[in-house]
Amino acid sequence: MSDSLERLYLAVLAARDLDPATSRTARLFQRGPSQMAKKLAEEAIEVVIDAVNGDSEAVIRESADLLYNLTVLWASAGVRPEDVWREMSRREDMLGIAEKLPKSSMKLPKVASPRVAARRPIVALEGRAARKRH
Ligand SMILES: N=c1c2ncn([C@@H]3O[C@H](COP(=O)(O)OP(=O)(O)OP(=O)(O)O)[C@@H](O)[C@H]3O)c2ncn1[C@@H]1O[C@H](COP(=O)(O)O)[C@@H](O)[C@H]1O
């Protein structure tokens, strides 16, 4: 999947300076981050509605639209796909697939399972603000 997103990211960068009359991507860049954010939010809601309705084919279609609009917003914000992959790898190393860090390392299981024990120990740095769980 990351290859597809990386190819799409490059296509979005290439389309940024095309004619907004013919390129949706160029039009989104012309209208700016607030329009990009609006479209991304709309697509997220469409995915949610289709999932709640059990329409998996529609979830697939809307997910592709969501990822497109996310890629456009990344490009506008100066975020590269590899920046996101690096953060996901960091979390996977620390705690498992795409998990958030606990509010405090004190909440980790006292007896680490072999899988957890095999990971690098989590070091709560002094003075490091605990991440808020959203
Ligand atoms: N991957 C995509 C892609 N996915 C989704 N979309 C657009 O996003 C729309 C989905 O959002 P909506 O459901 O809101 O569609 P809509 O009803 O037409 O939206 P509105 O016009 O009402 O905002 C689709 O109709 C597509 O026009 C995409 N537009 C472009 N790309 C790729 O982006 C690159 C640049 O393409 P251009 O933007 O056409 O230059 C190319 O590689 C394209 O394949």
TrEMBL record:
Top enzyme class: hydrolase
Signal peptide: none
Principal cellular location given in the protein's record: cytoplasm
Gene Ontology biological process terms in this record: L-histidine biosynthetic process
E.C. number(s) listed in UniProt: 3.6.1.31
Catalytic activity: 1-(5-phospho-beta-D-ribosyl)-ATP + H2O = 1-(5-phospho-beta-D-ribosyl)-5'-AMP + diphosphate + H(+)
Pathway in which this enzyme or protein is active: Amino-acid biosynthesis; L-histidine biosynthesis; L-histidine from 5-phospho-alpha-D-ribose 1-diphosphate: step 2/9
Domain of life: Bacteria
Listed GO CC annotations: cytoplasm
Places the protein is found: Cytoplasm
Keyword tags: Amino-acid biosynthesis, ATP-binding, Cytoplasm, Histidine biosynthesis, Hydrolase, Nucleotide-binding
GO-annotated molecular function: ATP binding; phosphoribosyl-ATP diphosphatase activity
Cytoplasm found in the keyword field: yes
NCBIfam families in the record: histidine_hisI
Family the UniProt entry places it in: Belongs to the PRA-PH family.
Name of the molecule in the record: Phosphoribosyl-ATP pyrophosphatase
Provenance organism: Bradyrhizobium frederickii
